[in-house]
Design a protein that fits this description.
The complex is a heterodimer.
Chain A (H helix, E strand, L loop, with lengths): L12 H19 L6 H15 L1 H6 L14 H19 L15 H22 L3 H10 L3 H17 L10
Chain B lengths: L13 H20 L5 H5 L8 H22 L13 E2 H18 L3 H9 L3 H28 L3 E3 L3 H4 L4 H27 L8 H22 L14 H10 L3 E2 L1 H10 L4 E5 L3 H6 L6 E2 L5 H4 L8 E5 L4 H12 L5 E4 L2 H10 L11 H15 L17
Parallel strand pairs in B: 3-7, 4-5, 4-6, 6-7
Antiparallel strand pairs in B: 1-2
Helix pairs in contact in B: 1-5, 3-8, 3-9, 5-6, 8-9
Classes of the chains: A mainly alpha, B mainly alpha.
Chain lengths: 172, 391
């Protein structure tokens, strides 16, 4: 029934959070900027667009500002780092398993449809809000910016208000 | 004081990319260790089954926040050496709300989904493809939604300033809230998932006490007042500061001050260093009264402005304060040449009293200045920085 419990148990979330906080602090002190994930994804999106229709993307108001080489950006490299770090940790702790995570009574097709639609909505929202859980909620709140705190509260509001609708995908 | 890759303007260098890669790897490692490579665990917070997201997230927030508090208090880093994400309040509330819906629908957010892909989750890969598509949709919709994109632009805005708090006091408040939420999370998990996690107990006690002590120390350091304002190594060379003086980069002509204020393009703070009585009698509309003794502390909130102009009757006091501000790492500060006497002489003096011959456009400009600065005084209100006049 519980398909998440393979490999070593997870680290205590407070300790993991503390180490994450130290990573963020290091980023502030060396890089002079916080963490971010959606920025790199959006750059990847612009790059995909350039491969398909370069003229159109370069002339668009939003992606166009990133020029012909949108991947030459620090957050793209941070995104690659997240993949590497996550992979090393998952391998070392024997937690890599190809699967579609869902409740036992929910179909994989429906679960993937929700993941896709949620992804589209999320990708759009990060551009509007200028960041995601990493760049806005985590980094912005640690810096006590008004926008970071507002984004964090709004995210929880949006999540809790609609959680009931999407509950079935986790039913075993 | 240390400089960052951002403050050295090197964020697009190969060096910055390598550092980002390493920091990203540490970030990804932490996320996977916390169990955030599992959508079931991430979504758990919305059903009160698994509060790991809240625990991990707020532990990270208060750790980094208090660490920064210490770094600022001991003068290890200047606040402006760090890129502060801007606040566009409306866009971020709307975007955050939509983001929350996407989060609970998919069980992923961008960073965690990358870790999900790294641990073999197919739903994470589909989510990321959706996210890339969503950014693409945004690009096409951008011309239509631009007003929402810029809705509620507050620039760099700190919530503690809006609430009338000092950084340290607010950091303590946030820490207390976080610790209370940790304990509530433990109770919630016990109630909704009928299990008592191993995380509760002595470990959480120790962590709570450790964080609260840290927060009290950050607050006390901020309160002591001297911590942030004692002379620290700014990395400046005396010759650089003196070169600024020699080049005349330390002062700005009154005419240019008038033009900047009226144009309203830059964020300009006009600091009047005279006595309160003189200030109350008359001051340039939009200027703020700053007693010489407290100038370093009071001007802190204008540190990131494009320009801070120091004004007094003459330019002796502003010149002396300029040097002190330079030592404290202010970059954008200038003295108004010839002081208020110069402002009266070169900006406000009526055309009819001027000896030199003037072109028609010069006369026009002087008359415009006179209406702006001597008229109702309201006209340049828009050029005054936010917060000025309210405190």
């Amino acid at each position: 029934m519980n398909n998440e419990q393979q490999g070593n148990p997870y680290l205590n979330p407070y300790l993991a959070g503390f180490l994450l906080g130290l990573t963020l602090l290091t980023s502030f002190l060396i890089l002079g900027a916080g963490l971010g994930a959606s920025g790199g994804l959006a750059r990847l999106s612009a790059w995909c667009g350039l491969c398909i229709a370069p003229e159109q993307i370069l002339n668009s108001a939003y992606f166009g500002a990133w020029g012909e080489q949108p991947l030459k950006y620090y957050l793209v490299f941070m995104l690659a780092g997240i993949l590497v770090g996550g992979f090393v940790s998952a391998v070392v702790n024997r937690r890599v398993k190809i699967q579609t995570e869902r409740g036992a009574s929910y179909s994989a097709g429906k679960r993937l449809a929700l993941a896709l639609l949620g992804g589209i909505i999320t990708g759009f929202a990060t551009r509007l809000a200028r960041g995601c859980t990493s760049g806005m909620a985590l980094t912005g709140t640690a810096l006590l910016t008004t926008g970071g705190v507002a984004f964090l509260l709004a995210t929880f509001a949006g999540g809790y208000m609609t959680a009931y609708i999407f509950r079935r995908q986790w039913h075993d | 004081m240390i400089e960052t890759i951002f403050s050295n303007n090197n964020l697009s260098s190969v060096n910055a990319f390598l550092v980002s890669l390493v920091i990203g790897a540490a970030f990804g490692w932490c996320l996977e260790q916390a169990g955030f490579g599992s959508s079931r665990r991430l979504a758990g917070i919305f059903y009160f089954r698994d509060m790991a997201v809240l625990k991990g997230m707020f532990s990270a927030v208060i750790t980094a926040m208090l660490g920064l508090g210490f770094a600022f208090a001991f003068g290890i880093i200047r606040p402006e050496a760090i890129y502060i994400p801007e606040t566009i309040l409306g866009a971020q509330i709307l975007g955050g709300f939509i983001f929350g819906i996407g989060f609970v629908m998919s069980g992923w957010c961008p960073g965690t989904a990358v870790v999900g892909v790294a641990s073999g989750k197919f739903d994470a890969l589909v989510f990321l493809l959706g996210s890339i598509l969503g950014s693409f949709v945004f690009n096409y919709a951008y011309p239509m939604i631009e007003p929402y994109y810029n809705w509620g632009d507050l620039g760099i805005s700190h919530i503690y300033q809006l609430a009338g708090f000092e950084f340290g006091d607010f950091a303590l408040l946030v820490t207390v809230i976080a610790v209370v939420m940790f304990w509530i999370s433990e109770l919630v998990e016990e109630k909704f998932s009928f299990r008592r996690t191993a995380e509760r107990g002595s470990g959480l006690w120790a962590f709570s006490v450790f964080m609260l002590i840290g927060a009290v120390m950050v607050m006390a350091l901020g309160r002591s007042g001297t911590a942030g304002y004692k002379v620290v190594e700014t990395g400046l060379y005396a010759s650089d500061v003196l070169l600024h003086v020699e080049m005349g980069a330390d002062h700005i002509d009154p005419e240019d001050v008038a033009r900047e204020l009226i144009a309203g393009q830059k964020r300009v703070a006009l600091a009047d260093l005279r006595s309160r009585e003189e200030f109350d009698e008359w001051h340039i509309p939009g200027s703020v009264h700053v007693p010489v003794e407290t100038a370093v502390k009071m001007l802190e909130r204008y540190r990131d402005f494009d320009l801070i102009v120091l004004v007094s009757n003459g330019s002796t006091h502003p010149g002396q304060v300029w040097v002190v501000l330079k030592v404290f790492g202010y970059k954008n500060v200038k003295v108004m040449a010839d002081g208020l006497r110069g402002f009266f002489d070169r900006v406000l003096k009526p055309v009819s009293l001027r000896i030199q011959s003037l072109t028609e456009s010069e006369e026009h400009e002087i008359n415009h200045w006179r209406t702006m600065f001597l008229g109702s005084g309201m006209a340049v209100g828009s050029a005054s920085p936010p917060g000025i006049g309210t405190r």
